[in-house]
Each structure stands twice: as structure tokens, then as C-alpha cells.
Batch of 2 targets.
Target 1
Amino acid sequence: MNENVRELIRSKSREVVDPAERKVSVLEEEQAQGIAGECGLKIKDVYNEAMEMGIYPYRYLRNMETISLEEQIELSKSRVAVVGAGGLGGNVIVLLARLGIGHLAVVDYDIFDETNLNRQALSHVNSLGKSKSGEAVELVRSVNPGVHVISYQEKLDFSNAFEVLADSDVVVDALDNIPDRFVLERACRDLRIPFVHGALAGFEGQIMTIFPGDPGLRHLYGNERSGSDKSKSPESVLGVPAPTPSLIATLQVMEVLKILLKRGKVFRNMMLHVDMETGEMNEFVFDNHL
């Protein structure tokens, strides 16, 4: 980045006092947009350069301390793929965009219909009949133009998985059936990418983080032929009220954050099961040898 850009960032930044009464140098959205336009850069590049200079993008000020500036830079350099942009995926995508993940790939071949309005964060009356992955791109750009997002309006299978997922640091499973999850898990295993599984039905849900070489989904489902009759799946029978995907997606995003920043405890070789109606969260630890 040339000195002219740095000088513009210095001149356009300002000092603010945060809620804890600390003085912080920040760069506001409007100023960052102006610098990007003047210098022919993406706003993401301007944000990254500001952070390297110790200047917070104002939008990330309330991340401070919980997520350090160095960690915020790491997130801006990270690549996450979200496979499925419905109930789980829509919430995951919004949260990752707000966190400042630098690159998002969204994979979903489906379109919105009226039954999605009860729970899917990307759906609204004007999106009915539109591509879920396409709407994800529009939403991310409006929430955080500092995130580069790519849409794949196609079903993930072995013919395209390597192309779609190859550069990802983490992949999020926001699918709604077991066979497709096994396809995704196998692709992640072959590509050596960590994989964050999530599933839900009614007021219950589960998450598990799977690293290459882990038994993974076999702990939960046995084999990929399980659950091939979608009409008998728990999700189909029990439905999906709005609070459940919101919570499970939040837990999945926290797993992504821990993997990328190498901190905290990930739910590896264990499943976290949540029953929202009883208020219970339970861990089930598995033998790693199958």
C-alpha cells in the first residue's frame, strides 16, 4: 500500500472515546468509502491498511478487547464457505459478515418461498422466488462492504466441491439432509479443511466441529445412507421455529471464530446438544476410534 493511501487514512481518521472511556483512533465508514473510491481500492483493503496502522474501522470498535486488533486483521484475511443459505446458513452469513470475515463463499441452489419467512434471516416478502445465495450477496454488501462475497447458485457435489471450497479456511455445514452432509464432509476431509456441522429440529439442535481425519458424522449418523427419506427427518416432522436456527447458527459461528483465532475450546469429537425448551445444553463425548 503506498504512502498516499496511508496519509489519507491518517488524515481522515479521528480519535473517539469508547464506552470504557478509552481513547481510540477510528476510521468511519464514509471516510473509508471515500478513500477506496479515490484510490481505486476495495474498502476491505482500506480497512486492512488502517488496522495495520493501529486504527480501528469504527464499525469494529465494539469488538475491541474481546477481539484484538491483531485478531480482527486475522479475520479480515480469512476465508469461510457456508454451504446452505436457509435457516442456519442465513444467520451464519449475517454474523460472519458483521464479524468482518474477509472472504465468504455462499453455496445454495435453492430459491426463497413463503414457508421460509418464519425463520430464514435472508428471506423477506420481496425475496420470494429469488436465489438464496444471490440474496446473501446483496445482504452482505449492505451489512459490511468490507467483506468479499461470492455466490454459487448450485448444489454442492463431488463435481464442484473442490473448486468451490478449495481456498477456504473453514467450512460451515448449513444443510438440511444427511446424505449431502456426508458429501460435504468428505470434500472437506480431502481438502484438509475443518468443518463445522450444525443441525436442528423443533426447539432442539446440535453442533460438532470436525477436523480432517476425525470420524465426524459417523458418530452421529452411522453412514451416508441414513436419513435419505427427507419426509421422515426430524426437521420435516417437528418443523423449525425461528429461535432454533438463530441459536445453533450463533454456536456455529463461535466455532468458526475459535478455529480461525486458535483460541478457546472447540467441540471436536463431541457433540453439543441444545434443548431450548428445557434450557439444557449437554456435551456428548465420542471415542475417536471407529
Target 2
Amino acid sequence: MKNHFDRKVGVWLDHSQAHFIDFSKGPASVETAYSDKESQLRFKGEIGSGSQLGNNRSTNSEHHTHNREQEFMHEYYNMLSDRLKNYDEIFLFGSTTAKDELYNKLKSDKQFVEKIINVKSADRLTENQMIAEAKKFFNL
């Protein structure tokens, strides 16, 4: 028999970090996961938006930069969905589009077909505010 703490998680996230508010073991516990995305994606030798190649300078295409950023976000969302697959009810909230992007990824994954997933916009919150928001959502 499941109790009201069974496999529920709130996740406040943006593109750089996710805070998991886990209610499966009773009182809320919070863990943070970070994305590998940097604010400025550069390889060794790059300065500004271009690369130094010997005495010459080459510019990075916008397409190339966008692809690298997409790869980092793809890995981040894969890591988050891996952590979420053991929960039955998932509450995603945050101030950026990251919550919606993760929601779309989860909805297209057959492992999440039977799971309840909700999304809500929320400002940047302190850890205590995150816990309170998740408790309020789950009526705990």
C-alpha cells in the first residue's frame, strides 16, 4: 500500500542547475544537480567568438556554437530524466524554459507514459521556498 510520501518529487530547475525535493522518505530532502553548460562555451585557444589558429584568427559560426550548447543541454536533460524515472509523480517548476524543455523530453519517453508530470512557472527561490512550494503542490 502506498502512502502519501510515495515516490513524489519536486524539481526546481533552470538551464544550469536542478534542485530535487524528494518526499519518498518522509521529510523533504533536497539534492542539487548541475549542468555542464557554461555561460561562454569555448575550446582551448578560442578568444571571444573566434579561434586563434597560429597567427590567423577564425570566427566560430553561430551554428557551431548553437550545436555545442544543444549537446550540453541534451546531456543535462538525459541526466535529469535518469534521476526522475523512479518517481511516480513529478512536479517541475522554475523561472526559465528549462522546465518546459524537460517536460517535453519526458513526455516523449516511453518510461514516463504512466507517470504524472506537472509544470509550473516560479521565480528563483531559496531552498526553504522550494520545499514549501513542492509541499503545497503535493498537499503535504
